[in-house]
C-alpha cells in the first residue's frame, strides 16, 4: 500500500477549484448553475495574442524554451514593468513560469526554510497559506477586518514581524475584496519594512491593470519605496488583464539572486513554460493596451450594476471594489438563521445552501481567513449577476 508523505497528508484542495468542480457536477445533473467562484474573465483572450498563439503553432515555435522564459518575452515584461512602475529590470532579473500561481509558489520555496514565517493579512487569496506550508514555512496570519478596511496597517505589520519572519505577501488590488492599497498606505508599510531588512516583499500584482479610478495602474510599493527593490518580488501574469487563464503564463521580477534560484527551481520541476503561450504573451504585452481599457470600462459597468442590485438586500453589506472583479459581501446578518431544518452557523453553511438549493456558487469568506463574508466574481454579464442576486433574495426571504 502506498504511504503518503506528511506533506501529502496535510495538503488541502484549492477551495475555489473544489467549488468549481461541485458547480460543474450540479450543472451536469441538469441544474442551471450560476458560478461566481473562480477568478476568470468571461471574455475571450484578445484577438492579437490568440492569433499569435496560432502563428506559433504554424511556424513551429513549439519546442522547449529556457526554463526562465524566452529572452523576447522577458524583454517585453521588462518594458511593461518600466512603464508601469518606473523600475528597470534586466532579463536576468525576470523569470517566466506556467502561471503566476506557480511563480508565487516558487518564490516561497526559495525564501523559506523550515519554521520561517510569512506574513499574510486577512482576507487573503485562498492559496497563500497552503503555499507557505508547502514551502515548510509558517503562515503568520494577521486579522484585518472592517475597521482596517480589510488591509494590514503599519502597526499590525510591525507587531507581526519577529526574528522568524522571512516574507510579507500581499495582493493589491485585492483578491478577495477588490480594495487596493493607496500610495500613502504603501509608503507607511514601507517605513516599517525598512526597519526589518530580512523581510522579502512579495507583491502580487495580478489585478494591477484592472483599476476603476481612471488611472491605468494601481499604486505600487516600489513607486513609493524604490529602495526596497533589492528584496521585492513583483508578480504578474497574463491571466486577468489579458484573459489568458488557460495559457498559463506568469512572471516575476526581482533581485537576480532570488530570480535565478526560482528559475533553477522551475527547471527541476515544470521545466519551461509553453513556447506557444509565451509567443502569445509577447503579442499581448506589446499590443493590447486598447483592449485592457475596454475591459476596465466593462468591469466598471458590471460593478455598478451589481451594486445597485445588492442595494435591495438590507442583510448584505458590500464593499465597493476599487479594482479586480470581486464583491466582498458581509453576510453576518444571515448567520444564526435557519433554512428549513438547517441551521446556518458559518459562511460555509450559507454558501453551501446557496449552491445546493439555489444553484449559485460563491466562495465562503472562511476560506479567505474571514468568517461572516463571501466572495463573488463579477466577471460575468450583468444579466447573469442580476439572476444570481435574485436567487440570493429568494434564499434570504426563506430564512427564519
UniProtKB/TrEMBL annotation:
Aminotransferase class I/classII large domain location: 32-391
UniProt keywords, alphabetically: Aminotransferase, Pyridoxal phosphate, Transferase
Cofactor: pyridoxal 5'-phosphate
MF terms in GO: transaminase activity
Pfam families given in the database record: Aminotran_1_2
Keyword Zinc assigned: no
Family: Belongs to the class-I pyridoxal-phosphate-dependent aminotransferase family.
Name recorded for this polypeptide: Pyridoxal phosphate-dependent aminotransferase
